[in-house]
Amino acid sequence: MQYMPVTESMFLVAETRDQPMHVGGLQLFVPREGQTSEELAEEMAASFAAATDVAPMFLKRPATPAQFAGYTAWSFDDEIDPDYHLRRIILPRPGAVRDLLRYVSLNHGALLDRRRPMWEMHIIEGLADGRVALYTKVHHSVVDGVTALRLLQRTLSTDPADRTGTAVWDARLKRRRPPVERESKGLLASITGAASQVLDIADQVVGLAPAAAKIAVAGVTDKDYFAPMQQAPQTILNVPIGSARRFAAQDWPVERLRAVGKAQKMTLNDVVVAMCAGAMRTYLSDHDALPDESLVAVMPVSLHADGDDDGNAVTAISVRMATDLEDAGERLAAIKASTTAAKKAVRGLRPLQALALGAATIWPLAFNTVPGFVEYTPTGFNLMISNVPGPEEQLYWNGARLDGCYPVSIPMEGLAMNITVTTVSGKANFGIIGARAELPRLQRILDHLETTLTELEALPPA
Amino acid sequence: MQYMPVTESMFLVAETRDQPMHVGGLQLFVPREGQTSEELAEEMAASFAAATDVAPMFLKRPATPAQFAGYTAWSFDDEIDPDYHLRRIILPRPGAVRDLLRYVSLNHGALLDRRRPMWEMHIIEGLADGRVALYTKVHHSVVDGVTALRLLQRTLSTDPADRTGTAVWDARLKRRRPPVERESKGLLASITGAASQVLDIADQVVGLAPAAAKIAVAGVTDKDYFAPMQQAPQTILNVPIGSARRFAAQDWPVERLRAVGKAQKMTLNDVVVAMCAGAMRTYLSDHDALPDESLVAVMPVSLHADGDDDGNAVTAISVRMATDLEDAGERLAAIKASTTAAKKAVRGLRPLQALALGAATIWPLAFNTVPGFVEYTPTGFNLMISNVPGPEEQLYWNGARLDGCYPVSIPMEGLAMNITVTTVSGKANFGIIGARAELPRLQRILDHLETTLTELEALPPA
Q1: Which residue numbers delimit the O-acyltransferase WSD1 C-terminal domain (chains A, B) (predicted)?
Q2: Reported pTM
């Protein structure tokens, strides 16, 4: 038995049948020269099945799985049931990427069993383009999305000749390969966790919020700054949700985003927000659901980084997405002003204040599973957008090239969509997950992202 | 909106993440002469996709899906999302029946979304033997297992030249084909429902039980009769369960079972119980978990049938399975005495009393999701065994022969295993569903069933 801190148990407590709290990653691999997709899938399956020395993270489960219990401890199984955790499937014809995304959508809506270690790995064949996909699903109480992506990357090598590829749960990995860089606890956990530790009120994370808001708001005067506790417009993104999901994913060359950032004197994060803003404006307009006021996004940002790369999440800021502005240039300028002001406010705070600001920004999430809360409470923000930097080098699993690595995050009650971006090997991989019934035709956002990026590229330099 | 009777809403109320309350059916089809499995799957998919006139049963969902609500009404969607409800998949190599059962196991543990009509249909290819499988999953509040199997059969034809095959949800079916024979509400619903209606206490089904038990027990004196409210041994079948499932299925020629029944002067139901008793004795012994006292099974029986076929469920009896007896002949005699006594007791009752007896027999189920109930309350019975008679003729879907039709039922808290048998086209199809973590190597029961049947065949005639 191992003590379970509130920063982990809260994801078990917050979980409902309509709001599964697991994160996922979808990786695509190109078989190495002369290898068929069938051979690669078989090689993976054999290698994974041989990894019977399982790391503790993949053996742990809540000691008291029933929903009424307090989740105060983890227990550890001696072994795993490979037939349960490791799944194989072949997609139906035509094996389009769309078929793959549909498979992930349908599986991401299903709860994990709490009476066994809470993760699954799916090896997926049948893509017409010959690639093989790995879809990994881990409960957020065990690992956050950022760490999950990094763990997956640890099974990969920069050397195409390397043949030591194994499973993510292989206990030997930790010994054989360098530890995961900048191991993070993710947005919710790092913010509430760090703030709790500092203030020594681990059991009262939520109670912290009003006080924190005062600290934070008191230090803020900038008119471009969207402070926590303000009100965002009510939209179709901010409704109670069902359990079914819709997942869309696509990648863009990081170089295209960086070029826009350079021309417009913006960070990569700002460019991501601007792409999302243009895409969401079009998506909501198509559904006659664009609010008069701007959407408000919450983004994790680093307290330290000043450069192009905003680094690891240690606090969260609210950003006006300027979706009320039709002109792409005006929208871009407004977004830049909003993120700059928010980051200036954060940098002007001492660390404790910054952590408290983050907690204040996201605290309403804690109440979203309370019946009726979402319907009857003003919305503080409309969606979360995260940008998670990964390694720049090309990565391989036993010589099979990693060709895409898409985060699959968590829609919540009142936050029906989540956009997470990860930059790996020169690609910005967008993963968009939404509640299925509430957000029809979600995949069109991919086209809107491309359209917006093209618009941004056409703007005169700042 | 449509009023939802308690006999339907109780399956929504009783549902937890560890106890999904949907029933399933697994059908296997042999492509017609000259047709590949791929062609049959494509033909099914195209035909099902074309069935856009959807019967009301497949459009309804709870009007208030959240778990805290009272479930007093159904609402009806205008259309279905075919990408969600109709799923296609190809099994991984080698495409053994084992791979198919594993797919069903993994999918049967996942909850249905309550914000859309609560059913799924999976078209499954990739079996090495060339057959195509259909796995159908419907919430028990919408339809019980018996009716679900009959609905599926309604899409089939006894004429191999018939090419009017369509989807089970096709609204034209009801108009085109005869109504489902002997439409039943299943064990729990028919017993509690009928008793409730008679006594006009629809909201107090559970409160009925103690009174019912008095009525029933008062009329019973036979020493072979296992009356409700007695205590069954505690076994590994009677524990809290997780959500993961294990499904095993196999069929036997009905003729083999009938021959045993004829030789031993027993009903087909008795032979099914005897097969299960021998198999469970071996299975539990292998796990060092055979109790000293006999297992007790609950079975639906008809009030009217006297012949070989016990017909439709209208009450439930408890049967001592005589798993404490090693000798197959002695075990068979004890089972026969127990079922005969139980049925005699039922026949001696007036209809209301019989219904009340059924309610008393199964009433503890109503409490099994109460935290701690399963651990601290004596077990009234150890498992449910149902035998559902179907049509004797060979059935076809657009000329593809139905080669197996296995029920996939519901394990519950405290009842980790369920065995349901359906006889169709001369085969007795056994479907065994169990809680995955709690019942390892469940598929061995299939071998034990064959071994037991062989033993029964070798016994001297009664």
Answers
A1: 311-456
A2: 0.83
Residues A381 and A243 in one domain: yes
Shared domain for A152 and A6, answered yes or no, is: yes
DSSP labels for B395-460?
-EETTEEEEEEEEE---BTTB-EEEEEEEETTEEEEEEEEETTTSTTTTHHHHHHHHHHHHHHHSP
B106 and B19 in a common domain = yes
Give the distance from residue B299's alpha carbon to the nearest chain A alpha carbon, in angstroms: 29
Comparing alpha-carbon positions, the chain B residue that sits nearest to A106 is B84
For chain B, the domain total comes to 2
Q: Considering A158, A174, A190, which residue would you say is the last residue of a domain? A: A174
Does residue A125 belong to the interface with chain B, where contact is any CB pair within 8 Å? yes
The answer as to whether A393 is a domain residue is: no
Residue B223 pLDDT: 59
Residues 385-414 of B with CB under 8 A from A: none
Asked if B156 and B114 sit in the same domain, the reply is yes
Q: 10-residue block means of pLDDT along chain A (462 residues)?
A: 72 82 93 97 97 94 66 86 95 95 95 93 97 94 78 90 95 64 48 44 36 44 58 88 94 97 94 97 97 90 46 64 96 93 69 56 53 56 87 94 93 90 94 94 97 97 90
Please indicate, yes or no, whether residues A351 and A243 belong to a single structural domain of this protein: yes
Two tokens, residue B125: 């290819």
Listed by number, the residues of chain A in 131-160 with a beta carbon closer than 8 Å to a beta carbon of chain B are none
Query: Both B169 and B211 in a single domain?
Result: no
Mean per-residue pLDDT for B327-336? 96
Residues B84 and B225 in one domain: no
B285 or A389, which is more confident? B285
Three-state DSSP class for B40? Answer: helix
CATH number at residue A129: 3.30.559.10
Q: In chain A, which residue's Cα lies nearest the Cα of B244?
A: A113
Distance CA A245, CA A18 (A): 10
Does residue B79 sit at the A interface (CB-CB below 8 Å)? no
Token pair of B108, please? 């049967």
- Compare B449 and B239 and report the one with higher pLDDT: B449
- Specify whether the CB–CB gap between A309 and A182 falls below 8 A: no
Q: Is residue B183 part of a domain?
A: no
Domain CATH number, residue A284: 3.30.559.30
Is residue B140 flagged as an active site residue?
yes
The H-or-E segment that residue B343 falls in is: helix B328-347
Q: Which domain holds residue A341?
A: 207-387+410-457
Q: How far is B206 from chain A (nearest CA, A)?
A: 23
Please indicate, yes or no, if residue A199 is contained in any of the structural domains. no
Tell me the C-alpha distance between B30 and B44, whole Å.
13
- Residue A198 covered by a domain: no
Are B84 and A436 within 8 A, CB to CB?
Answer: yes
Percent share of chain B, pLDDT over 70: 75
Measure Cα distances from A301 to A186, A315, B55 in Å: 11, 6, 51
